[in-house]
Design goal:
Layout: E1 2-7, H1 10-13, H2 20-24, E2 28-31, H3 40-54, E3 57-62, H4 83-100, E4 101-107, H5 121-137, E5 141-143, H6 145-150, H7 153-156, H8 166-181
Parallel strand pairs: 1-2, 1-3, 3-4, 4-5
């Protein structure tokens, strides 16, 4: 029995995380928090609370970023989390996750509809480009959900312009399950 942990924001919580356990089936014990892991600093804090459930995991699949890159909250054009803070906290989280699990997989930040006022796809792309090479240097595997969703943005992102549609959940859940199976 392989022990799997799914961590991440609502893209996981109400998205792919709803289907991955079923797709993996027997032979996999999947744990994921009921909580939305929000932005990376929140996730970092919660790693302390989740330690018992995570230690000894075979695979940890993790995503963070949509909350961090939010640029429209305060009308100042700045992301909620600066590039430097995002990279620093993501690398810290990665170091901790590597202590808890044998394999760690990071899922890239998914895009949003181009009209979505709180996020910007150029910023999402920038943050992915900043963090992916650094995580790869640490031996973290990359699951490029961003590229998958961008193939048909308006099919895979729902009417709220940020969360996965039913089709997006299906395609991302399958990709996450495939990444976990390795």
């Amino acid at each position: 029995m392989k022990k799997v942990v799914l961590l991440g924001d609502s893209i996981r919580q109400i998205g792919y995380g709803t289907r991955v356990p079923e797709l993996l089936g027997e032979g996999y014990e999947v744990w994921q928090p009921e909580d939305n892991c929000r932005f990376v600093k929140y996730t970092l804090r919660m790693l302390f609370d989740f330690k018992e459930q995570m230690e000894g995991s075979d695979i940890i699949h993790w995503n963070n970023g949509l909350w961090d890159i939010t640029t429209g909250l305060f009308d100042d054009g700045e992301a909620f989390t600066s590039e430097e803070e995002y990279v620093e906290n993501m690398l810290r989280a990665a170091r901790i996750l590597k202590k808890y699990g044998k394999r760690v997989i990071f899922a890239t930040i998914t895009p949003v509809h181009n009209e979505y006022i709180y996020n910007n796809n150029a910023v999402i792309q920038r943050y992915n480009e900043l963090i992916v090479p650094k995580l790869q240097e640490m031996g973290i595997e990359i699951n490029d959900l961003h590229a998958t969703v961008m193939q048909d943005l308006y099919k895979y992102i729902g009417l709220d312009q940020i969360h996965l549609s039913e089709e997006g959940i299906a395609v991302c859940a399958q990709q996450v399950a495939d990444a976990i199976r390795g």
